[in-house]
Protein: 4-hydroxythreonine-4-phosphate dehydrogenase
Organism: Flavimaricola marinus
Amino acid sequence: MPPTAPIAISCGEPAGVGPEVAAKAWAALGRDMPMLWIGDPRHLPEGTSFEAITDPAEAAAVCTRALPVLARDFGPPLRPGHPNPAHAPGVVAAIAEAVALVQSGACSALCTAPIHKAALIDGADFAYPGHTEFLAALAGDVPVVMMLASTVLRVVPATIHIPLSAVPTALTEQLLSETITITHAALRRDFGLSDPRIAVAGLNPHAGEDGKMGHEDRDLIAPLVERFAAEGMTIFGPMSADTMFHPAARARYDAAICMYHDQALIPIKTVDFAGGVNVTLGLPFIRTSPDHGTAFDIAGQGIADPTSMMAALDMASGMVAARAGS
Ligand SMILES: NC(=O)C1=CN([C@@H]2O[C@H](COP(=O)(O)OP(=O)(O)OC[C@H]3O[C@@H](n4cnc5c(N)ncnc54)[C@H](O)[C@@H]3O)[C@@H](O)[C@H]2O)C=CC1
Ligand SMILES: NCC(=O)COP(=O)(O)O
């Protein structure tokens, strides 16, 4: 990969705030961080300084004066705040194209703007609940882990986009073991922690209260934590989820493995919505994303906060450097 290979940004749902936060992130960071936006340039906010290019190798030079764009035609016009399923094939293709560029080495990392899953299902028969699962499939069905990370907290939901009623069955020893192993390796490789400290949440209230309020904590989670600890990992749990996210508790670990989506995402979006980054661990390439969604309620108004997108680009850039050993 050339040292100036840009970070590929897939446009995400064009009716959401994705194009706006990408344009704002370029304005703030683009002079120092090569990036390449893939999408329909008609969807960028009016007045965005962009240049259509055809070769990602041109991005680094262009990025100092304009947002480099691989321009694609998504068809019908856009109404901010109103997703059009007709745009869905373009949205999915932009993600796939960005992945191909990263896999070929033409781009250094992938940063995805948020998608609206329903529009992709309606308009493109999208068979995945989110980027995470789609990227795992594009990478060859590798096991992956979702991490939401900010400077104050890192959380990992062991199960992701499934109904709450399906969580207990989905929580198997294999899933939890893979989740912990992938998280531990990524904390070492990408976050520079030589001996990461991992806290594991319980599933049930009070981590099951010794089997009186559910058995998964005692029968599944505790033995697994003991096994990893016996192998030398710094890991503890199961913790009562209600008391593991206050500041003193957070200071005791580098990442919290949580049992389901909201157990992980509520605390981080509460303590650092603006600075949170969604990063997929376990892929053979680097992928980050802002922690927020499409924000249809404010799309097209010019008021979207780009902080999370900027943090996602920063994190991707840091991971590229960490993997290059610099
Ligand atoms: N990585 C991804 O592709 C993600 C996609 N989504 C999708 O986004 C859609 C909407 O999800 P919601 O739950 O409504 O969450 P959301 O994050 O889009 O919006 C929640 C609230 O936060 C505000 N907000 C979000 N981003 C903001 C920004 N950059 N600046 C200022 N305010 C901002 C919104 O205006 C809204 O009031 C759903 O279809 C969901 O699946 C949600 C999260 C991540
Ligand atoms: N709630 C997180 C989310 O929806 C992001 O999912 P993904 O598209 O990154 O898989």
Summary: The pocket of LD2JLWAY (ligand 2) is lined by residues 130-132, 265, 278, 289 (CB under 6 Å).
